[in-house]
């Protein structure tokens, strides 16, 4: 398992991994040893090594979510050593490399913890609560026609940038995992901001925030207390400005929308 | 449920009530602090007793007293409801959690700090407010109720001074987070003003709490 760097010394690690058969069973922390881990491996590759060892021994491999392994998809949701996506700032688990750890370290790996994210198995959680929040209003309904000409709808550069920053949210759920209150407000606010800031999002602007916040509450996420743990752990740097924007949108919608229900 | 109840039972609706009442209570702290500065006047308490007589009898103040009670009531009730809901949102906790690496402790301890302040508030109300309003204080030279002497004798007891100073420390941390948090909840976040609000929050919390804490310390050590 030697990497490209001849000086990279392989490491031996102790892993404390959350194992749970299914949603209804009791889970527990199980300790494993992994040997000869290259510092150039990603965290997920290290887990691949563990799983290969387990397979060879005839044990069940550890279930964990992953897809692109490029930091784009937001699937790799692991709580590592007490932090969402591990100790490094602004990274997903797949972009966390083993050089951030030292030989002999003990690493605790747990799934995201929130009632709204039930554990499917081991480290894999069900994040479909996020999908249902998006289905409640995180979209723009448009009549499709021909492809519009470029710059047909003028949008100031700074507004476009702000909407784009919100749109970089990869829905990984680290905000919920890191938050003391298991609040989803950073995620929901990013999804509201990216549309509220643009002309295309204006038609459904008020119903969107009302319905998405109602769905967020229904899913059982906690309420934000403005601690900022979410933004501190967000791998793409979604800022708390979005939550303030969502609050403004919500207050405005509740005060002025035609929705009496 | 009507749209009104839906609004004010939603997570953001409740947060907005906590924010508005919290910032309102900050204005009360200023009034309370400024008024109590009469305690430092070296006239045997005459000025302070005139002030406390005014606060206990003026109809505008007596009306605002009820508004203040409502402010406290809503702030405590809504915060409590949110805290219970927030705690319930994560039934199974982490084995290894290191929140100190991503946030300050007092921001995560608002419910605890609030509870400490509430306990202090009840003791404080019983000792001064209750006795001034419903007790039988002796008259001073101007024939006003002599609340000053009660303050004086209370703050000559070390454990009383300790309780008051500790409560102000809790209030200070509660305010450092609460002040800026109130603005954020109301959506008042702006790249230009939010850093200024943060600084004002720190200064406000420290000045107000140091001001209140100085009163028992002054009586205990210098009177």
From TrEMBL, chain A:
All residue ranges annotated as the 4Fe-4S ferredoxin-type domain in the record: 160-190
Q: Where are the transmembrane segments?
A: none
Give any Pfam family that matches.
Fer4_8
Q: Enumerate the GO terms in the molecular function aspect.
A: 2 iron, 2 sulfur cluster binding; electron transfer activity
* Co-factor requirement: [3Fe-4S] cluster; [2Fe-2S] cluster
Annotated GO biological process = aerobic respiration; respiratory electron transport chain
Q: What does the similarity note say? A: Belongs to the succinate dehydrogenase/fumarate reductase iron-sulfur protein family.
Name assigned to this protein:
Succinate dehydrogenase/fumarate reductase iron-sulfur subunit
Q: Which organism is it from?
A: Hymenobacter roseosalivarius DSM 11622
Automatic annotation (TrEMBL), chain B:
Family annotation (SUPFAM superfamilies): Fumarate reductase respiratory complex transmembrane subunits (SSF81343)
State a GO cellular component annotated for this protein: membrane
* Swiss-Prot/TrEMBL keywords: Membrane, Transmembrane, Transmembrane helix
Superkingdom assignment: Bacteria
**Where, by residue number, does the polypeptide cross the bilayer?**
16-40, 60-77, 110-129, 158-176, 196-221
**Which InterPro entries does the record match to this protein?**
Cytochrome_b-558, SQR/QFR_C/D
Q: Which Gene3D superfamilies match?
A: Fumarate reductase/succinate dehydrogenase, transmembrane subunit (1.20.1300.10)
UniProt cross-references to NCBIfam families, sorted A to Z = sdhC_b558_fam (TIGR02046)
* Name of the protein described by the UniProt record: Succinate dehydrogenase (Or fumarate reductase) cytochrome b subunit, b558 family
């Amino acid at each position: 398992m030697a990497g490209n760097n001849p000086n990279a010394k392989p490491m031996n690690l102790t892993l404390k991994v959350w194992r749970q058969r299914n949603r209804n069973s009791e889970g527990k922390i199980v300790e494993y040893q992994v040997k000869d881990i290259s510092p150039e491996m990603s965290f997920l590759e290290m887990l691949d090594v563990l799983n290969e060892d387990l397979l060879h021994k005839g044990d069940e491999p550890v279930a964990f979510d992953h897809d692109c392994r490029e930091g784009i998809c937001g699937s790799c949701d692991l709580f590592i050593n007490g932090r969402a996506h591990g100790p490094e700032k602004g990274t997903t688990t797949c972009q966390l490399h083993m050089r951030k750890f030292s030989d002999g370290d003990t690493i605790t790996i747990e799934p995201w913890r929130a009632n709204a994210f039930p554990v499917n198995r081991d480290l894999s959680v069900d994040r479909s609560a996020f999908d249902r929040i998006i289905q409640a209003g995180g979209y723009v309904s448009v009549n499709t026609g021909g492809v519009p000409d470029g710059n047909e709808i003028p949008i100031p550069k700074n507004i476009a940038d702000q909407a784009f920053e919100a749109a970089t949210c990869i829905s990984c759920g680290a905000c919920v995992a890191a938050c003391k209150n298991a609040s989803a407000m950073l995620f929901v606010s990013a999804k509201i901001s990216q549309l509220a800031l643009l002309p295309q999002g204006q038609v459904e602007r008020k119903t969107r925030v009302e319905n998405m916040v109602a769905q967020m509450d229904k899913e059982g996420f906690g309420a934000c207390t403005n601690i900022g743990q979410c933004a501190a752990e967000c791998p793409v740097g979604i800022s708390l400005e979005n939550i303030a924007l969502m609050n403004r949108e919500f207050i405005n919608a509740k005060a002025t929308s035609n929705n009496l229900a | 449920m009507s749209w009104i109840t839906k609004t004010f039972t939603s997570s953001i609706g409740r947060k907005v009530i906590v924010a508005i009442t919290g910032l309102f209570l900050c204005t009360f702290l200023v009034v309370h602090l400024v008024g109590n500065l009469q305690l430092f006047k070296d006239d045997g308490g005459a000025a302070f007793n005139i002030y406390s007589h005014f606060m206990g009898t003026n109809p505008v103040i007596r009306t605002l007293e009820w508004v203040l009670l409502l402010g406290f009531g809503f702030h405590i009730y809504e915060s409590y409801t949110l805290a219970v809901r927030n705690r319930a949102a994560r039934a199974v906790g982490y084995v290894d959690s290191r929140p100190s690496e991503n946030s300050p402790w007092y921001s995560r301890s608002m419910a605890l700090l609030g509870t400490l302040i509430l306990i202090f508030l009840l003791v404080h109300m019983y000792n001064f407010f209750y006795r001034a309003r419903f007790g039988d204080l002796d008259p001073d030279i101007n024939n006003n109720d002599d609340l000053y002497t009660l303050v004086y004798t209370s703050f000559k007891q070390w454990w009383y001074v300790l309780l008051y100073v500790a409560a102000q420390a809790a209030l200070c941390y509660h305010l450092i987070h609460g002040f800026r948090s109130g603005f954020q909840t109301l959506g008042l976040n702006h790249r230009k003003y939010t850093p200024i609000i943060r600084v004002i929050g720190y200064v406000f919390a420290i000045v107000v709490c140091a001001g209140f804490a100085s009163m028992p310390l002054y009586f205990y050590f210098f009177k």
